[in-house]
Predict the structure of XRE family transcriptional regulator.
Amino acid sequence: MNEALRRAMFAARLSDDEIAVQLGVDVKTVGRWVRGRTPSARHRGPLARLLRLEEPDLWPEVLTLRGVRATPTEVVAVYPQRNLVTREAWIDLFESAEKQIDILAYAALFLAEDKRLVDLLAAKADGGVVVNLALGNPQAAEVRHRGTAEKIGESLSAKIRNALVRYRPLLDRPGVTLRLHDTVLYNSMYRADGQVLVNQHVFGLPAAQAPVFHLRWLEGGEMFDLYMESFAEVWRAARPADGVVG
């Protein structure tokens, strides 16, 4: 039952029949609205004006519906956790790259441990794709702080060193560049040309348990470019990995 609608009709002294006549609908339709069905957009506005109210006063869910419609079409998908992004999705992402792959993370060890994904990055580099890897400096204070926040202590530095060893074969390819950053990461990014998976960082949780946004570049969009500007800032400040990767 939509109590807000029922009370508004009572206050306006309008019956189901009178509203049906005013809006040009069947009286049974008005009855369904009173019992809880949300009217279509073309009827919500006229009915709200007839009762001298705003649509959200009668149907609070309209705010949610409008939010869904307002979601930028740059958003392809949202995953509640990175663990829910399938291996096939990662493969499809990097397979799609024809010009550039950018990876920003602390370790991205889950990728480094997957031989097929590392081989795919190598094949892409051999095919002329520019591959930029920005990983955390295992000696940085920011990495220690993140390890403490995630309750894994020095394990994060160890994960980075492990990842650096596993990514080492890629560095023999022309077009592959590895840099180390000291940034406090708010998110990790995995970009292939006009697509990017953005792994949010949630305080106290490992990245694998945090949400992921799959975005695509669109003319006139803002989100994709915003994240790419952020990547560029980190990349400019990052240092070559010489001496750390041997």
